[in-house]
């Protein structure tokens, strides 16, 4: 679905005019569509219903409390990668049993907190981590549930910074080590091996890497199910992509669901999935107001009030986001949409056909609902933007805009 459409020449989020939202809440501004979140979650749940899935929304994608509460209300679990994300999830009312704790660098304090709260299971990324979890649970005299993360050494064909399934990355362990650690967990008095986990990277636009990963881990799943009394889950991670460019084809959810449903059915396991971008990416836009139009012999610079500290993906990954004029225009300019941050890499779009704009005009950076606000910073002492959630014709502020006082709060 597309929650952002033109009506009478003006871009709307559901039934709310983006221009009116910018006037009320200021810019830069993140605007999200509740309907889009709900549509994507229910679509995914319906496609995978035969696998009895535990769908754990990936908090790192978009972590604001109102959005987490929305997913909790639909029955989702959570994928967290820090004690802070776990805190957010518990604060939003999630059942700790439906929270998966991933990440390669869990501290003793984070592990202790997670065990005390009763998280569903830890994704274990290394042998030292397994030892640390066992040690902490020994101190607490509580058992901990774990799933070993298998690195299948598969290139998923995404950006090198977000590729996590190749053997030379920091994530997971090779299949032989995964087998050894899994058997060790089965034999340990206080550890419970509840499954295997793999995550290949993000965004993935093809089902092929998932199929290749399944071929690697399927034999180990069979063995561990026979030997482990608590082994009952197969966690395929996340990474399901969305089309950012107009020419990109959507992720083939039907093919993915057919593969996943068949795999867990054959193995007699429950599917765990940790989608983030697929659920939230298309649900948000970042509004920026043009401050200056700067001509240059080779291009035109549209200088907005949103910058790389508001949306880091283009600068970090050279990621592509569509840019639409809030008031529709057929005229274009060739150039860059940039921000006021003192970095040449401060751009939201570069060397592109952009909507022709003048100072004061509003532009919408599309598909900004995942890894937008969560990666924002206060670089150049810039307050982070506000966030608004739209449902039909109503809109509510779910995070206020930071002030200059917020920038120095906590300093001594």
From TrEMBL:
SUPFAM superfamilies on file: Alanine racemase C-terminal domain-like, PLP-binding barrel
InterPro entries: Ala_racemase/Decarboxylase_C, DAP_deCOOHase_LysA, De-COase2_C, De-COase2_N, Orn/DAP/Arg_de-COase, PLP-binding_barrel
Pathway listed: Amino-acid biosynthesis; L-lysine biosynthesis via DAP pathway; L-lysine from DL-2,6-diaminopimelate: step 1/1
Residues that, per the record, bind pyridoxal 5'-phosphate: 239, 274-277, 371
Keyword list, A-Z: Amino-acid biosynthesis, Decarboxylase, Lyase, Lysine biosynthesis, Pyridoxal phosphate
Transmembrane segments: none
Enzyme class: lyase
Gene3D superfamilies per the UniProt record, alphabetical: Alanine racemase, Lyase, Ornithine Decarboxylase, Chain A, domain 1
Reactions performed catalytically: meso-2,6-diaminopimelate + H(+) = L-lysine + CO2
Enzyme Commission code: 4.1.1.20
Entry cofactors: pyridoxal 5'-phosphate
Domain (Orn/DAP/Arg decarboxylase 2 N-terminal): residue spans on this chain: 36-280
N6-(pyridoxal phosphate)lysine PTM positions: 60
Binding residue positions for substrate: 277, 313, 317, 343, 371
One Pfam family from the record: Orn_Arg_deC_N
Catalytic residues, chain numbering: 342 (proton donor)
MF (Gene Ontology): diaminopimelate decarboxylase activity; pyridoxal phosphate binding
GO terms for biological process, alphabetical: lysine biosynthetic process via diaminopimelate
Domain Orn/DAP/Arg decarboxylase 2 C-terminal: 30-369
UniProt similarity note: Belongs to the Orn/Lys/Arg decarboxylase class-II family. LysA subfamily.
Stored HAMAP family: LysA (MF_02120)
Function description: Specifically catalyzes the decarboxylation of meso-diaminopimelate (meso-DAP) to L-lysine.
Subunit and interaction comment: Homodimer.
The protein's name in its UniProt record: Diaminopimelate decarboxylase
Species of provenance: Kiritimatiella glycovorans
Gene this chain is encoded by: lysA
């Amino acid at each position: 679905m597309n929650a952002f459409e033109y009506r009478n020449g003006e871009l709307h989020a559901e039934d709310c005019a983006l221009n009116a939202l910018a006037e009320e809440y200021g810019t830069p501004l993140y605007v999200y569509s509740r309907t889009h979140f709900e549509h994507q979650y229910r679509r995914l749940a319906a496609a995978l219903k035969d696998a009895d899935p535990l769908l754990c929304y990936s908090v790192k994608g978009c972590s604001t409390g109102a959005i987490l509460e929305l997913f909790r209300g639909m029955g989702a679990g959570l994928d967290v990668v820090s004690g802070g994300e776990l805190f957010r999830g518990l604060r939003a009312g999630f059942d700790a049993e439906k929270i998966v704790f991933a990440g390669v660098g869990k501290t003793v304090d984070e592990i202790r907190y997670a065990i005390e709260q009763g998280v569903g299971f830890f994704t274990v990324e290394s042998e030292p981590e397994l030892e640390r979890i066992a040690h902490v649970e020994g101190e607490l005299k509580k058992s901990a549930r774990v799933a070993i993360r298998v690195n299948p050494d598969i290139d998923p064909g995404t950006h090198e910074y977000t590729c996590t399934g190749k053997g030379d990355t920091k994530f997971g362990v090779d299949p032989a080590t995964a087998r050894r650690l899994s058997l060790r967990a089965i034999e340990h008095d206080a550890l419970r091996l509840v499954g295997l986990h793999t995550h290949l990277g993000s965004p993935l636009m093809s089902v092929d890497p998932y199929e290749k990963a399944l071929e690697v881990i399927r034999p180990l799943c069979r063995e561990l199910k026979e030997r482990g009394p608590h082994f009952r889950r197969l966690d395929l991670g996340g990474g399901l992509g969305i089309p950012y460019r107009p020419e990109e084809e959507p992720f083939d959810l039907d093919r993915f669901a057919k593969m996943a449903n068949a795999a867990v059915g054959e193995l007699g396991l429950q599917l765990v999935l940790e989608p983030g971008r697929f659920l939230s990416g298309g649900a948000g836009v970042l509004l920026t107001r043009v401050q200056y139009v700067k001509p240059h012999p080779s291009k035109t610079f549209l200088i907005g009030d949103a910058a790389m500290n508001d949306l880091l993906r283009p600068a970090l990954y050279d990621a592509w986001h569509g840019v639409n004029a809030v008031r529709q225009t057929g005229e274009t300019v060739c150039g860059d949409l940039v921000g006021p941050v003192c970095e040449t890499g401060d751009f939201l779009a570069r060397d592109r056909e952009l909507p022709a704009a003048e100072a004061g005009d509003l532009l919408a950076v599309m598909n900004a609902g995942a890894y937008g606000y969560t990666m924002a910073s206060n670089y150049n002492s810039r307050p982070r933007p506000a966030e608004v959630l739209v449902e039909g014709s109503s809109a509510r502020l779910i995070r206020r805009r930071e002030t200059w006082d917020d920038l120095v709060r906590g300093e001594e």
